[in-house]
Amino acid sequence: MTLYEKKLNRVRRVVYSNQDQIDAVIGIRNYIENNFDSDLNLDLLSRIQFISKFHLLRLFKKYYGLTPRQYLIDKRIEKSRDLLRQGMKVTETCFAVGFNSLGSFSVLFKTKTGKSPAQYRKEQLSRSNLTFDSEPLRTEI
Amino acid sequence: MKVTIISIPVRDQEKALKFYTEKLGFIKKLDKPLEGGNRWLTLVSKDAQEGPELLLEPAPNHFEPSKVYQDALMDAGIPYTQFDVEDVQAEYDRLTKLEVEFSMKPTEMGTHKVAVFNDTCGNNIQLVEEL
Questions:
Q1: Which of A44-58, A81-95, A122-136 is predicted with the least confidence, judged by mean pLDDT?
Q2: Which of A3, A16, A25 sits opposite B109 (nearest CB)?
Q3: ipTM for the assembly
Q4: Of residues B77, B110, B131, nearest to A4 (C-beta)
Q5: Of A20, A124, A50, A44, nearest to A80 (Cα)?
Q6: Confidence (pTM)
Q7: Domain spans of chain A, in order of start
Q8: What CATH number belongs to A76-139?
């Protein structure tokens, strides 16, 4: 056994010894992964695993390093990048990944990627050298 | 400030380029000649070509402490670099067929699954999947 494996085993014993907790947070993460485009909230997530909201929040953060909300936002932004790259229009993308306000989508997208969704889409499309329907300028907010 | 480069020390840049592109599936981005036959050689992920670049740098050949450190990590089985994958088991199956050697088979670590392989250029590399 390498030194690295010994160290990992120690981390597993100390940090990952509670399998029930691990199963619960993995269940929550999978639910977010499969339903990121729907209207998710802490109440709903806590009902799925039968644990209290505050306990869920604490456990999720402990194992994934992010709150469920931050995790969900990252997932939606990641997915929206894929869709924009494929040529989907900004407004459609916003709703397709589960945001219900174009304004907050644009602000979050820009915070996370450094570019507005419209700018990102334009760059990606010109890079891939494909022709798509041109998008009206008014979506550039 | 932006993170753009992740350095990987390699003993042989050409061999590393082959391994990282042909077996791991990275794509060559920059290849600029430097002095003494060295190259500024970077790769990107196929799925994130605008993302950070891997710099295959020949440091162990020119700076002894780099070689000593790399050897010590190798002996201890410690991966200094890790890549995210969708499915560690599937990558393990694919890479073992390509004769890549793993020092650690796919192993669950709480909310993650990890595996470690030898990149044939002096490094252990870890694959990680979030569960």
A1: A122-136
A2: A16
A3: 0.87
A4: B77
A5: A124
A6: 0.87
A7: 3-65, 76-139
A8: 1.10.10
